[in-house]
Design brief:
The complex is a heterodimer of chains A (about 270) and B (about 45). Chain A contains 10 helices and 5 strands. Chain A has about 270 residues and is mainly α. With about 45 residues, chain B is α+β, with helices and mostly antiparallel strands. The longest helix of chain B has 7 residues. At the A-B interface, helix 5, strand 1, helix 9, strand 3 and strand 5 of A face helix 1, strand 1, helix 2 and strand 2 of B. Strand 5 of chain A pairs parallel with strand 1 of chain B, so a sheet runs across the interface.
Chain lengths: ~270, ~45
């Protein structure tokens, strides 16, 4: 943390811009700390507070616009990727989309203050085809609020910044311990899943060429190819294996009733 | 999923590599029919 303060003090506006832009494109760098440091530097006239706000705003908007355009070009695939780490990707996608649709405008104004949400909001706005001018206006409002809050905080409490740094450093050690514990817990969970799912290895596997040959033979009418991707089709133009049908994994009992037991079933995902 | 299907008495198999391998092999694909699309809300 002290290193970051020293970095901001030494490299000035460039450091502020780099850290803020990095956070905007979802890299794990603390823009708030950089802004507090820059605010404190503004109080001692090492930097101009107005310039800090202007530089940080430009950097944040540049990063957010990049993420917005990424969401716009990737469509729902980006949200699908992000939701892959959730327990239920389908529900994650549907709920995120519904929630952002209902509260998207307000979300963009306050998302910078909420870790996680700040990473999701710009690409979601892009995926959901929010007009760029509207996105830019709302995001600029949210970014300005965030930047002014933290830089003014640093400006007003410049004398306390050193002691705050000390406190944050202590808290940082506690957070590091929590992160390590969470990581170990996650590894244990994956190991448990691996052991639990070993039984699935008994399911026979076929290579693409083998199945393609069967589909071209007279056996084709005894074959059913089933798409079991964990999330649905959200983008028009999405592709699947020709002739395959989709099974919704979250609705398996009902879906199974419609499957013919007389056919060989070949399942695939992404 | 395939394991569950086998438990229910289906003769199920897994395609190695999934859709990516199928696509890479140049085997035929189709565009998902419009009725199968899940329509998420958009601002447009």
């Amino acid at each position: 943390m002290n290193d970051l303060f020293a970095f901001v003090a030494h490299h000035g506006y460039l450091a502020v811009a780099a850290v803020v832009f990095s956070e905007a494109i979802d890299l794990p760098l603390p823009a708030a700390v950089a802004l507090i440091a820059a605010g404190a530097a503004g109080a001692t006239h090492s930097l101009s507070l107005a310039s800090v706000v202007a530089v940080a705003l430009c950097a944040m908007l540049a990063g957010d616009c990049l993420m917005y355009l990424l969401g716009r070009s990737m469509g729902w695939r980006l949200l699908s990727l992000i939701c892959k780490i959730s327990i239920n990707p389908e529900t994650c996608i549907l709920r995120s989309a519904e929630s952002f649709y209902k509260r998207g405008r307000v979300t963009l104004l306050v998302s910078k203050f909420v870790p996680g949400l700040n990473a999701m909001a710009p690409p979601l706005a892009g995926s959901m085809n929010m007009r760029f001018s509207q996105f830019l206006a709302l995001d600029a409002g949210g970014a300005l609020l965030y930047i002014v809050c933290y830089s003014v905080l640093g400006y007003l409490f410049r004398d306390l910044v050193a002691s705050i740094t000390q406190g944050v450093q202590t808290a940082g050690h506690a957070v590091a311990i929590v992160v390590v514990c969470a990581f170990v817990g996650y590894l244990a969970y994956r190991l448990w899943l691996y052991r639990k799912n070993r039984v699935y290895r008994v399911v026979p596997r076929v290579q693409v060429a083998e199945l393609a040959n069967r589909l071209r033979s007279e056996e084709a009418d005894r074959i059913l190819v089933v798409d079991v991707r964990s999330h649905g089709y959200y983008d028009s133009g999405a592709a699947r294996i020709r002739g395959s049908v989709r099974i919704e994994p979250n609705n398996l009992p009902t879906e199974i009733e419609n499957l013919p037991k007389t056919k060989d079933i070949y399942v695939y995902c992404t | 999923m395939a394991h569950l299907l086998r438990e229910k008495g289906f003769n199920a198999f897994i395609i190695v590599g999934g859709l990516a391998a199928w696509r890479k092999a140049g085997e035929p694909l189709e565009v998902v029919p419009h009725d199968d699309l899940v329509h998420l809300p958009t601002f447009s």
